[in-house]
Specification:
The complex is a heterodimer of chains A (about 280) and B (about 280). Chain A has ten helices and ten strands. Chain A has about 280 residues and is of the alpha/beta class. Chain A has a six-stranded mixed β-sheet with strand order 6-7-8-3-9-10, with helices on both faces. In chain A, strands 2-1-4-5 form a four-stranded antiparallel β-sheet, covered by helices on one side. The two termini of chain A are about 25 Å apart. Chain B folds into two domains: about 40 residues; about 230 residues, MetI-like (MetI-like fold), CATH 1.10.3720.10. Chain B contains eleven helices and no strands. The longest helix of chain B has about 40 residues. By secondary structure, chain B is mainly α. Classes of the chains: A alpha/beta (about 280), B mainly alpha (about 280).
Chain lengths: ~280, ~280
């Protein structure tokens, strides 16, 4: 399969949910264990290897930024965690990723249950063409996380967490597509929170937003990390420096360096990292 | 010649050509409508819609049986054809890589190009000949067969317009694949699917050839799907080729009614498009 070939949607069968969703109050199983544990993970689209032997772990209730030049595999890595790459035909992988101690790639992994536990926010806001309320309520409603009568409370809580409630509380029944781009993106964050995920993946969530909307989302990350583990892919190094606690630098599918954000941006251990963050390439 | 003047001349010439092409395309439609109204509107009356045909040679009467027959035959055909066509279209759009999709699409394209009379012969051979009598159901089956590839292809094209990001959003929320297809993808394209379906219904409502040796036509009011039944296109055909002056006038009027039915359906389709949800932004 060539690099330019359009990804095909493959025939993925999803078994019925067997894993009961985590009750909202429960603590993660192993307190000391990392939220995400990447174990010698490699990934390829056909012949093209895009991730090589990644090995690192991501800390709970912190923001971890993934930076690197275009095509270095940042997004592929993120989409490997919730197995959204399964949609593309002819992909192969080696190794494993553990989310809260549970394998993502083990045989018989329930993708539906996995994706309930791992929320995702995309590059461009992609609300469903439904009402604001339904956008947030659909995930938890579908997955029966809460009784139907509690849905309004859950929606309000998620919208508050996404700092959107005050702007939309009078227009919950209006179509979500009528919101501004920044509001739509925060709605997508609220929608992801609706499932009460253990982990929140964000794939360049601010790249389609103006500076003010970007700032709002960044402020939101500070609030969210008190309750959620967040992995954010970003093109914007200032953003990584501002919002993250840890930073991983990817280049050509390899993890070049992973450390405290401060360390990465002040005294990187690798020459390539330094070259990238000082703008000499990428 | 000055460059800007030249450009403007070319631009005007092109616009002129396009206006000419539009007029040429619209003229036949205009003449058909005018002809139908001039020759048919005079015979339209309350009787025409509510009465049964008068015995041959006598004046008066109407085509109530054919209007009812068309509604029944087309309705039954839609009940058979629309679900199959829409479901097949959804399958082809959602699983484009599968071999079954390739085969289905190929067969649909071939069927789309098949003359409708061939489909009529097919229905005759399989239903009329085996049952040994003509029936409205055979006509409906023939029309359904014509509808399926049309509906399937428009449904597929509509669904392909749904951005992949919307699919991913649903899957990433933990939607099973089939629910993503139905609750998000199909819901989003519903107005488009409805439009495609109405256009297909309008298309088959005017088909004559597949009904000639299936539903056959009838002079009487019949509500029985297992019996021959009248239909507007057949009535037009019979009356237009008949020997009486009044029949000819009735043929014009029946044709006018038929085109009005199709018109209303198409208009409904346009309105459905107008109410389409905007996707992103």
């Amino acid at each position: 399969m060539s690099a330019t070939m359009k990804p095909k949607i493959s025939f993925v069968t999803t078994p019925r949910a067997t894993l009961a969703p985590r009750p909202p109050s429960a603590q993660p199983a192993e307190r000391g264990a990392p939220a995400v544990d990447v174990r010698r993970f490699s990934f390829a689209y056909g012949e093209r290897r895009v991730l090589r032997n990644l090995e690192f772990s991501i800390e709970r209730k912190a923001v971890t930024a993934i930076i690197g030049p275009s095509g270095c595999g940042k997004s592929t890595f993120l989409r490997s965690i919730n197995r959204l790459n399964d949609l593309i035909a002819a992909t192969t992988h080696e190794g494993d990723i553990l989310v809260e101690g549970r394998s993502v790639y083990a045989q018989g992994t329930d993708l539906v249950a996995l994706r309930q536990r791992v929320g995702m926010v995309f590059q461009r806001p992609n609300p469903f063409p439904k009402s604001v309320f339904d956008n947030v309520a659909y995930g938890p409603g579908l997955n029966r996380l809460v009784p139907k009568r509690d849905l309004p409370d859950l929606v309000e809580r998620c919208l508050r967490q996404a700092a959107l409630w005050d702007e939309v509380k009078d227009r919950l029944e209006e179509p979500a597509t009528g919101l501004s781009g920044g509001q739509q993106q925060r709605l997508c964050i609220a929608r992801a929170l609706g499932n009460q995920p253990e982990l929140l993946l964000m794939d360049e969530p601010c790249s389609a937003l103006d500076p003010i909307a970007t700032q709002r989302v960044e402020e939101l990350l500070f609030e969210l990390k008190r309750e959620y583990t967040i992995v954010i892919v970003t093109h914007n190094m200032q953003q990584a420096a501002r919002v993250s606690d840890f930073t991983g630098f990817f280049d050509r599918g390899e993890l070049v360096e992973f450390d405290d954000t401060e360390r990465i941006f002040t005294s990187p251990a690798h020459e390539r990292t330094e070259a990238y963050i000082t703008g000499r390439f990428g | 010649m000055n460059r800007r003047v030249f450009r403007r001349l070319v631009s005007n010439a092109m616009v002129g050509l396009m206006v000419f092409a539009v007029v040429v395309a619209l003229l036949p439609l205009f003449f058909i409508l005018m002809d139908l109204i001039v020759k048919g509107a005079g015979s339209l009356s309350a009787d025409f819609f509510t009465r049964m045909p008068a015995p041959a040679g006598e004046s008066g009467g109407g085509v109530a049986h054919a209007i009812v027959g068309t509604l029944i035959i087309v309705g039954t055909a839609s009940l058979i054809g629309l679900p199959i066509g829409i479901a097949a279209g959804i399958y082809c759009a959602e699983y484009p890589g599968s071999r079954l999709t390739w085969v289905t699409r190929f067969v649909a394209d071939v069927m789309n190009g098949t003359p409708s009379i061939v489909v009529g012969v097919f229905a005759w051979a399989w239903i009329v000949a085996t049952q040994k009598h003509f029936s409205a159901l055979a006509g409906s089956a023939a029309l359904a067969l014509l509808m399926i590839p049309m509906v399937m292809r428009t449904t597929e094209e509509m669904i392909k317009l749904v951005p992949n990001s919307l699919r991913e959003a649903a899957l990433a929320l933990g939607y099973p694949r089939w629910r993503t297809s139905l609750a998000i993808v199909v819901r989003t394209t519903l107005p488009g699917i409805v439009t495609g379906s109405l256009l297909a219904v309008a298309r088959i409502a005017g088909e004559t050839a597949p009904l000639l040796f299936t539903a056959l036509g009838s002079q009487y009011m019949s509500l029985n799907l297992n019996q021959p039944m009248a239909a507007l296109p057949l009535t037009v055909f019979t009356y237009a080729t008949g020997p009486y002056e009044e029949w000819h006038r009735y043929a014009w009027a029946a044709a006018l009614v038929l085109i009005l039915v199709v018109f209303v359906l198409s208009l409904g389709a346009r309105l459905a498009i107008g109410r389409r949800f905007t996707l992103n932004g």
